[in-house]
Design goal:
4 copies of one chain form a homotetramer.
Chain A (H helix, E strand, L loop, with lengths): L1 E5 L4 H10 L6 E6 L8 H4 L23 E4 L6 H10 L3 E4 L8 H8 L14 H8 L4 E3 L3 H10 L6 E10 L14 H4 L4 E2 L7 H11 L5 E8 L6 E13 L1 H11 L6 E3 L4 H4 L5 E7 L1 E10 L3 H16 L15
Parallel strand pairs in A: 1-2, 1-3, 3-4, 4-5, 6-8, 10-11
Antiparallel strand pairs in A: 6-9, 7-8, 9-12, 11-12
Helix pairs in contact in A: 1-11, 6-8
């Protein structure tokens, strides 16, 4: 299957190419970039040298010639090309925020008008597999909402309050230098940011509601001095106390058939580079601590996008995504 | 004033010596260690080379000849010598857990009998200055309870639930190699530990109660890939919503006269190596996020111990403790 | 092909299993450990959870039932079982130092007698492919000698002096906690170790001689605050000055047919997790700086071991080894 | 003494203010910045909050009212104001490169004309104390040349070749975000840069010549994933072999009276935040490995600048500079 990556110069673009090299049915035929037209992909992504001869091209969506597309562009840019791709019959996973939320919530959260809205499946396959399977367009979830939602999902409907305290690696801020990503501000350091105002909270609330829960949701992200990974500590306040055996059994059962969700004490290292989400849970009665770990660029972005592609196109769900992480 | 450091080979011992080198009235005359008798201090603490000629001695408490002592030994070891020091008229700050809690809480929390109990002031000077001033023996608080309590104190009595989500540097685990401190398990990694069972929770609860609050307290610590520092994110659920202006004013007023508590967005880097606790607060109505940052070895241990010593002995409270941190 | 990993609890054992999961013809049927008999592999290597059901067994070499074995045991332990494996017709790659050096050099360097010596190919395929191909037993090179030798090989015979200044990640010291691997001694730190006495120098000298060079060789390793990777800066003093064009062409030609050696400015990140060795060179006339980067656990150990296995068994040389690194 | 810091918004400016807070005779009265006029210093340097009320001012050199000035501006900017400060009788330490080299070498190395040249002492006090003492203007050395020269100085005249292989923390690149300082390019990574072309080599050669040596000098810097510190491994090839006892004695004697040079195995951690340079040496006959560690922002910049100020103004040489580093 021929694949185009639209906006391929960033970390998620590089990660899509890295992972698709291992996919038995995927052939990346186009990597677009406005600024890098003519530049070999391996010049920007040196880890891919020797494995790809692709060259960035500044191709418009109307000129893309492929069976499938990944949109790895900023929000508001995706909505401008989604329709064109659909008209041309190119199935698409959109990694931007443009189709993740209900229209009114999107416009309020991002402070812009949505000029090309339609409903799309929200691509956490573990929760929405049936909608994703066979879809022509899927909205790929945000990195924080993926880890947070998978941490809390089994218990959401038993809770009155869920506080997501998340810690992310720096790659979540992209590969453009800024004060946020300046080594002197991050190395051997740690801090909270957007303490109560991060946009991803809207996705978290939407998913909690879809799980049949009325729990109040809160979210505070933090910045870790690591490249990759998000560990989310979900502090879940229950309506009625539950014992450890009970909550653990609930999680084991909820994820029993999910290859990409493993029940074990999460660390960033065990999932780094992989599409796994490690989850575990510990109860102290009325509060349960549920912790998840994902690689923000894989299960939190490009890996989950490929998992969605696999479902949309009838491939094995884990095709190209079975690699183990590295430890250490 | 002549000072003995009992148990001087660890990180807190080294930090006491580092800081006391800058104290105008302090002269460290003894550094004890069971295992390192005869070894120069600078062999274990190479950053002190050229600044001290002290040699570790395996001196028993009954043979200590000093005006003041710091107990930097494990819990249960401190209670065995506290009485001896008192009899000899040596004022003491105990950095262990032995005198921080009410006797029954201590015995339940640490699973041991307390064989030499007495009440001691709990040495967070910002909250208990009057009790510390002039005392002969002070219990120095745990690292997590110091940062957590200073984060939540101004709001405690307005809250029904306080969840402390703390992230600590590795030095909190001491300078003896272990799986916990093994670089391959920590470097470029992140994880939660003792999700619901850390002993420091008992101190946090005790302090919240002393602040006149009936809030339920919860605590989950995490391990950062950094050497020093604790950042605590206190998720405070209020009885009645409060606006940002109101909570910020509350904090500004509460700490207005405190040199060591600074109101600014906390990062580990800005307090590293110092006795400062940086605090700030952000409200979203019914939840307030209060964040604090301390250096776990300074305000979380040795620095606060010296601050207590200063109060006990009538020195300026900031004597020896005015150094700025390093950034970056 | 059925494979046994003898000594599978360490980092190189874990890495062999990680990489062999991606090999089309390899089936790991045994993972031995003296201490962990009965423990699931995924308990020690949590990144492999969900991907393997192997359990560690304390199996003696005489009871190994496999077509191929990797010896991932300490030096002196390998020589005790190499003969047994050979008698049983089990082809073997030995990751220890026992068969890398001439007997007298080995005994002098390691200060022990070699009780079961025989000659074995030295498994850097880029330099000794013909000897490795079809061999029944191959000595896998040390991590430092692999990177250093590949950096200097094209220029060795033109040089009178080669100084290898190498910087390694902490995983080279293994997964047993020690002062060397203690986070407090490594994190945000950097130092040299074994300044003139590291045993790997003997391998480097042997390879330089085999390249027809009489250059004097020196070696100083350093410890980086990273998990993986070795970057070697080879300072090469030439008999006659050479221009940049000339040395660069020399390197390009020398490695033109080598899939695993890429000519680009090396960084640890671009090779992390992979079997690639990135190399580049810069001349200032009489001194040339040649720099290489490898992952010490892959091209420096387990990956090169599989590359050797592929040659020994007639598989494609890159089978199981084509994964890209991760960046960031 | 009233002090002005010209160009105070960067890391070296911040470091000057941090260190001068501990100086018994120094009073920083002006901190200039073109871009930050009116901004409190503590907004840019949050570690100084509570310790200084200074506000950045965009003051021209001709309007500076102070007894002493530190020039912490880029090269070519310093030469434009040095004369003005001299005319106004303001003693000055220049942290830029403008007065470190002979005029012709400077112009060739930096590719610019020097429009206001005069000779100034080169401020490594351990080597040029007599010239610095009482001078009105001192050129503060580069960070790499300081550590490298102190590593090799005792042996320089016995050597025919000196190769400086240096590894620096990221703060050497300043506090402006760039690809070089982007966390994703540095974190958990390592690389060489300017392999044969770093400008600091010119200072190193100049100092080696002043030491009476004709040794050829080479220099390759590398970038560490740490904030601070430079470790230089000087590979010194001797004219005649020397034994370990001999070289060690040479170093011990050479630095016997130097408070800021300590003979011990260097690590970055032991000198971090301090003005110390730790040095040690190991011989293998014809090659000697001499290693030094400094904090690039202290002994490599602001600390040495204050040490020079102390000598120029008749203060104790270690005034304000006796703080120990932090370990860990």
């Amino acid at each position: 299957m021929e694949i185009a990556i639209i906006g391929a110069s960033g970390y998620t673009g590089g990660e899509l190419m890295r992972l698709l090299l291992q996919h038995p049915s995927a052939d990346v035929v186009a990597a677009t970039s406005r600024k890098l037209d003519g530049t070999p992909v391996a010049s920007v992504h040196p880890h891919l040298r020797g494995l790809t001869d692709l060259v960035f091209r500044n191709t418009e969506a109307g000129d893309i010639d492929a069976d499938f597309a990944f949109l790895a562009v900023p929000h508001t840019a995706a909505m401008k090309v989604a329709g064109t791709l659909a008209e041309r019959g190119i199935k698409t996973v959109d990694l931007s925020a443009d189709y993740r939320l209900a229209k009114d919530i999107y416009e309020k959260t991002y402070g812009v008008s949505h000029t090309a809205y339609f409903e799309a499946p929200y691509g956490i396959p573990e929760l929405h597999r049936d909608e994703v399977r066979g879809a022509a367009f899927v909205a790929n979830p945000g990195c924080f909402p993926t880890g947070a939602t998978l941490a809390a999902a089994p218990l959401a409907k038993f809770a009155h309050t869920i506080i997501y305290d998340s810690k992310t690696g720096v790659s979540g801020a992209g590969n453009t230098p800024s004060a946020t990503t300046h080594y002197g501000n991050v190395g051997d350091n740690f801090s909270a940011y957007k303490w109560t105002t991060h946009r991803h909270l809207a996705e978290m609330k939407q998913e909690v509601a879809r799980l049949g829960s009325t729990a109040r949701c809160y979210f505070t992200p933090h910045l870790l001095p690591v490249n990759r990974g998000i560990l989310t500590t979900a502090h879940i306040l229950l309506n009625e106390p539950m014992e450890q055996d009970e909550v653990e059994a609930l999680y084991q059962k909820f994820y029993a058939d999910e290859f990409f969700v493993r029940y074990q004490r999460p660390t960033l290292a065990a999932v780094r580079g992989t599409n796994f989400c490690d989850v575990a849970v510990e109860s102290e009665g009325d509060r349960v601590v549920a912790v998840s770990a994902i690689d923000n660029l894989v299960k939190g972005a490009s890996g989950q996008a490929i998992q969605n592609m696999n479902l949309m196109c009838g491939f094995a769900e884990d095709a190209g995504l079975r690699s183990a992480g590295m430890l250490p």
